[in-house]
Amino acid sequence: MKQQNNSVSRRAFIQVAASGGMVAGAVRALSQGSSAAVSARRKPDQKSVAQLRCPPLDRVRIGFIGVGGRGSSLLGNLLEIENVEIKAVCDLVPERVQRAQRRVVAREQPEPVGYADGERNYENLCRRDDVDVVYIATPWDCHVPMAVCAMKHGKHAAIEVPAAMTLAECWELVDTAEQTQRHCMMLENCCYGEIEMLVLTLVRQGVLGDLTHGECGYLHEFAGLPPATHKPEDWRWRFLGKLNGNLYPTHGLGPVAQYLGIHRGDKFEFLVSMSSRERAISRRCAALPADDLRRQATYACGDINTSLIKTALGRTIMVQYSTVQPRPYSRINLICGTGGTFCDYPPRLHLAGQTGDWETDLTKYHEQYGHPLWKALRARATKSGGHGGMDYVMNWRFIQCLREGLALDMSVYDAAAWSSVVPLSIASVAQGSQPVTVPDFTRGEWRG
Ligand SMILES: NC(=O)c1ccc[n+]([C@@H]2O[C@H](COP(=O)([O-])OP(=O)(O)OC[C@H]3O[C@@H](n4cnc5c(N)ncnc54)[C@H](O)[C@@H]3O)[C@@H](O)[C@H]2O)c1
After folding, report:
1. Is the peptide bond before 346 cis (omega within 30 degrees of 0)?
2. Do 254 and 410 contact (CB within 8 A), yes or no?
3. DSSP secondary structure letters along 388-434
4. Which residues of 73-94 are buried (b: 16+ CB within 10 A; e: fewer)?
5. How far apart are alpha carbons 272 and 434 in whole angstroms?
6. Ligand 1, atom 39: nearest CA belongs to which residue?
7. What is the residue with the minimal CA distance to atom 19 of ligand 1?
8. Beta-ladder partners of 213
9. CA-to-CA distance for 356 and 339, rounded, in angstroms?
10. Which of 15, 149, 383, 436 has the lowest CB atom count within 10 Å?
11. Closest ligand 1 atom to the C-alpha of 66?
12. E strands along 145-267, which residues?
């Protein structure tokens, strides 16, 4: 793998990666699943962005939409990366815009222009001619209109996870990126975790043999009681209350898709999904006073959703989602091949021919297969923080690709396919776990 001055080309990354108010709209669009799956014809004004390279940027000028919890954290990383300028900040809450502006000024950059006046003021940020990239860290149903607006105004879009909530939205991202020839990357930070990048290298160097199966998930207990009144910051509950499926698939699925070389020789073919009954939230609400409306409400999402994806090469992936079950945090992160199996939480390896249990001391594997980006960036990444440093590595790598005019590690097709598990799992659950086709967002270019 080529590495010069921390510079890892897309080819090298992939070689490691691949060798070794719209809830109602979301539900409505789910019923259009099969037609969306076949409406995959590229229009004359569209061109593939699979290997999109854009002219190198000397300095990367960023506009931010959404500086709540996640946006603030991303801003902190970007303020510590060289050759990045924060030009504009937008949020519905003026105090959040001001706080972000103060943080930028404290890092000796000129004060970014603030936009805090209404739900569509982000459009003015997208119109600016001194912004190269728009970072979007807003609620799930805002991502696509904002990213589309950014790309249509000539900006690259960096969207939080999941990138889209419906199949129509997934296609809108793909079509707009292809029309505008702009990058549209989903900020899937877990693809840049130290363990995930180690496993990527193991896989790509053939240590795990021919891959046959992966398991992943987002098992993170955090949902307490539903809010008594509807405040904007409780937006996650709007979805949890109404949609039944996997609402947050990409943290687990992104890395496993990269291990399996999805869109680099394989693709998701179809999916079946099943949700357990809902008990956790209604049990919590049962403790509320008798006249509390939350006791009578129903909560759509089952306590745990399990989806199974079959790939074109016949591999299988299990993806789980639960934010209510009392259990330790896990993204599972299991990958299995003819040469062995890796499983996380805690990290462990079992190679073919080994006897006994898992190998848990992975020091020698870190030494031999640790990813060069982590070797180069560890001190800065752990100091900057953000999920153990993975956020810094992701942002650093994104900026590097833009500055060197490299293709990105994660394409708009990845964003669309990984996010499509949201609507497809909901559709499968609603149809008694019937198989649903995963659209080929690459339009035949998945063979790599
Ligand atoms: N990758 C990760 O590890 C990670 C972690 C947390 C959250 N997220 C994602 O980040 C996104 C934001 O989550 P959060 O926890 O920061 O939520 P949040 O509620 O803390 O922040 C969202 C912000 O968006 C602003 N906003 C909403 N509509 C807007 C509009 N029309 N114009 C401008 N600003 C608007 C809100 O005022 C708020 O400040 C979500 O997509 C979430 O899934 C990702």
Report:
1. yes
2. yes
3. GGHHHHHHHHHHHHHHHTPPPSS-HHHHHHHHTHHHHHHHHHHTTT-
4. bbbbbbbbbeebbbbbbbbbee
5. 6
6. 68
7. 233
8. 316, 336
9. 15
10. 383
11. 24
12. 156-159, 184-186, 211-219
Question: Which residues are near ligand 1 (CB < 6 Å)?
Answer: 65-66, 68-71, 90-93, 96, 119, 122, 137-140, 142, 160-161, 187, 189, 233, 387
Question: Looking at this protein, which amino acid is placed at residue 108?
Answer: E
Q: For strands 156-159 and 334-337, give the pairing.
A: unpaired
Domains of the chain with bracketed CATH: 192-373+409-447 (3.30.360.10)
Are 206 and 339 within 8 A, CB to CB? yes
Longest dimension (CA), the chain: 66
Mutate to test the pocket of ligand 1, among 70, 125, 134, 410 (most ligand atoms within 8 A of CB): 70
Of 237, 239, 203, 252, which is closest to residue 18 (Cα–Cα)?
203
For the chain, 448 residues long, give each residue's pLDDT as a single digit of tens. Answer: 222 333 334 444 333 322 223 344 444 444 344 444 445 689 999 999 999 999 999 999 999 999 999 999 999 999 999 999 999 999 999 999 999 999 999 999 999 999 999 999 999 999 999 999 999 999 999 999 999 999 999 999 999 999 999 999 999 999 999 999 999 999 999 999 999 999 999 999 999 999 999 999 999 998 688 888 878 888 998 898 899 999 999 999 999 999 999 999 999 999 999 999 999 999 999 999 998 888 988 899 999 999 999 999 999 999 999 999 999 999 999 999 999 999 999 999 999 999 889 999 999 999 999 999 999 999 999 988 789 999 999 999 999 999 999 999 999 999 999 999 999 999 999 999 999 999 999 999 999 7
Q: How far is CA 345 from CA 48, 207, 216, 334, in A?
A: 38, 20, 11, 10
Ligand 1 centroid to residue 381 C-alpha, Å: 22
Report angle CA 45, 46, 48 to the nearest 5 degrees: 155
